[in-house]
Amino acid sequence: MRIALAVAGSMSFQGDVIGWVATHRRHHAVTERPGDPHSPHRYGTHLRGQLRGLLHAHVGWLFRNDRTPPELPHSRLRSRGGTPIAPDLLADRDTRAVARAFPALCVLTLACRSRWAGPSAVRGCTA
Predict the structure, then answer these.
(1) Hey, what's the torsion of the CAs at 11, 13, 14, 19, to 10 degrees?
(2) pLDDT digits (tens, 9 = 90+) for 5-38
(3) Domain extent at residue 87
(4) Structural domain count of the chain
């Protein structure tokens, strides 16, 4: 079941499963504070900043170049010691295989959408 969920999550184009989980754990470790990858508050409190923050919190974080490395120690986030943020996933052979397959799973997603919903579905998600 966990592999099926990891594959399904990977097919959402939000990054490989290990990177996504590491970013999610980082978000929960420092929610609404500096270092939160999803924080909408990084652009200020004026209207333009709030709108930009809303876009960033929703999908913009996917396109930033500050991904959370799974090896990032918790001590860099909080005082939890120096253990990596995603040691369980780094140690799991099956999860590493799904993470390595991320590009192929993205291609498979587009192929499945094209087959089931027609070519317009692929154009819609790549436009």
Answers:
(1) 70
(2) 999 999 888 889 998 888 888 888 887 777 788 8
(3) 2-126
(4) 1
